[in-house]
Design goal:
Mean pLDDT: 88
Domain NodB homology: 41-228
Largest sheet: 6 strands, parallel
Keywords: Signal
Signal peptide: 1-23
Distance between the termini: 81 Å
Protein name: Peptidoglycan/xylan/chitin deacetylase (PgdA/CDA1 family)
Structural class: alpha/beta
Pfam families: Polysacc_deac_1
Radius of gyration: 25 Å
Shape: globular
Number of helices: 9
Length: 244
């Protein structure tokens, strides 16, 4: 009789706890399959030429999708749009320098003209926000103009880190063809990720980009990407493979 009671108690315990354990395992398996937040896919969104009159709208879009980006900014623009510059900082976006003039003949006149433009842009950033950065992206990208002698001044002397991109949105070319820009971005991101690299997307702080950005953010979120900002601890991505 005692043996029978013990058997009934064990049976009841198993009946109570085994279904709960199976349910927990099923939930864990489901989460691992759907888990966009644990996919580990990263993308670096970057914007050149700002701030502009459109930066606040751009930041609103980023905020809506809980995304961050890195802004490579021009010195005079930071001083012209101080509120936008401060908001970029306040909301945790990455800070980069794009020079002062954005004129190739002036920026690339000599190694020290390039260096001086980045120092000048950094001074503008500090004047407006009280912060400095070591991230730089020269106008039109580093190739072909930013040769070894330029980099030997800009990087070790200035302590800067050179960034280009591996995904060109071409938003500067197709300003009104928003679908083409969107398709171009997504195709390149998938190609870059397929090669085992982290996408670094070049976009511009301009009106047309505002039409494309929500589409890109929505799709990338659905695919499980995390939007991170560039910092000086990350190995630079540039056309010269210069890791200084």
């Amino acid at each position: 009789m005692l043996h029978m009671k013990r058997w009934l108690i064990v049976t009841l315990i198993m009946a109570l706890f085994i279904p709960q354990a199976m349910t927990a395992d099923a939930k864990a398996a489901g989460n691992s399959k759907s888990g966009t937040s644990t996919s580990g896919k990263t993308v670096y969104l970057t914007f050149d030429d700002g701030p502009t009159a459109h930066t606040m709208d751009l930041l609103d879009i980023l905020d809506k999708y809980d995304a961050h980006a890195t802004f490579f900014m021009l010195g005079p623009h930071m001083e012209r749009y101080p509120a936008a510059t401060k908001r970029i900082v306040k909301e945790g976006n990455g800070l980069g320098l794009h020079g002062v003039t954005h004129v190739a003949s002036k920026f690339y006149h000599s190694p020290y003209s390039a260096y001086n433009e980045m120092v000048g842009a950094n001074n503008s950033l500090y004047k407006v926000t009280g912060q400095r950065t070591s991230l730089v992206r020269p106008p039109y990208g580093s190739k072909p103009y930013l040769k070894q002698n330029f980099r030997d001044v800009l990087l070790p002397v200035g302590g800067f880190h050179l960034w280009d991109w591996n995904v060109d949105s071409l938003d500067w070319k197709y300003k009104k063809d928003h679908q083409k820009v969107y398709q171009n971005i997504m195709r390149q991101i998938h190609s870059v990720e397929g090669r085992g690299q982290t996408p670094v997307v070049l976009m511009h702080d301009q009106p047309g980009t505002l039409k494309v950005l929500p589409l890109v953010l929505k799709e990338l979120k659905a695919e499980g990407y995390t939007f991170k900002v560039i910092n000086k601890q990350i190995k630079p991505v540039n056309f010269w493979n210069d890791e200084r």
